[in-house]
Amino acid sequence: MPNNHQKPQFYSWIEASLPAEVMLSGALEAQGLTGDAGFRRYYRTNTAPSLIAVDSPPAKENNPAYVNIAMALQSAGLRTPVIHAVDFAQGYLLLEDFGDQLLQPLLNDQTIAELYGLAETALLKLQQLPDSKALFPRYDAQLLGDEMALFKQWFVTDLLGIELQADESTMLDNLFGQLIQSAQEQPQVLVHRDYHSRNLMLLANNSLGVIDFQDAVWGPITYDLVSLLKDCYIRWPVQQTRQRALAFKQRLGLSVDDQQFLRWFDLMGLQRHIKVMGIFARLALRDNKRDYLKSLPMVIEYSLEAAEQYAECQTFCQWFKRRVSPLLANQSWYSEPERLEL
Fold this sequence. Notes:
The protein has 342 residues and is of the alpha+beta class. It has helices spanning 8-17, 63-75, 112-127, 141-159, 166-184, 223-229, 238-252, 258-285, 296-307, 314-328, and strands at residues 30-33, 41-45, 51-55, 83-87, 92-96, 188-191, 200-202, 208-210, 217-220. The protein folds into two domains: 8-96, Phosphorylase Kinase, domain 1; 104-328, Aminoglycoside phosphotransferase (APH), C-terminal lobe (Aminoglycoside 3'-phosphotransferase, Chain: A, domain 2). The chain has ten helices and nine strands. The strands form three sheets. It has a five-stranded antiparallel beta sheet, covered by helices on one side. A hairpin with a 4-residue loop joins strand 4 (83-87) and strand 5 (92-96). The protein starts with 7 loop residues before the first helix and ends in a 14-residue tail after the last helix.
């Protein structure tokens, strides 16, 4: 029977939408699964084979984008869940079940070459998709800036209680402008926008499954690469990360020197991690998803690591260490991250 989070009409829709080749013996059951950072709720059915039923409120989630982008990615040879049925009015989807094998718990020093190799090959396919202005919003200055503004409100003010002075706010806006400029001077390609070890899955045939792609945009070529290699949930030595980044640049055939590419890569990572600090704080404070706070120390470390390397980021780096870092020790979620070798 449906629990309090499931609607009777949702169950009825699932039953009516089961593909002919999917068997159901007895009453339909749908087991709730751990969701993502959005408003979607996922359920695994007791069918053979099992399927994933999604309750995705149409007022809060862009379900047409999910379907259209899934089809685009599949056309490029990427493995995304097969969509068996969709009801846009109610926000229901019935998807192929990719299982539970996320890349994250499989990653270690022995597996990184093979698993990141799969992820990087899939990313090359994704980046070769042609542009479609109707399908892929622009990752423009407005969107990049709006993302970083979350840092000021949710992380600095709401989470840490820092009231920004006018000169501090101006300093941050100046940094944001420089990060936006770096992002916009890069070649622009399709960007998954959350391409990391919790959104990549190892499938039964040792192929890679890609999920959570519905927010894809047209933007900077290093964005997904830095999401993967400077993952908010797992960390590698800096030199190893840089070597993989440059190896990927070689596969791209980009005619920019290594120093320029790494600058794009590092500053793109700083933009992403500034955004993530704001998003994780908002998820904790607004949505009561406090587990995200546990990942903030690593994100902070990434941010300072990048900022320390570039002259245009020094003011931000010094400000952070003076105004923000002293407050971190008092936060229940904070623990000093291990400083990996450069």
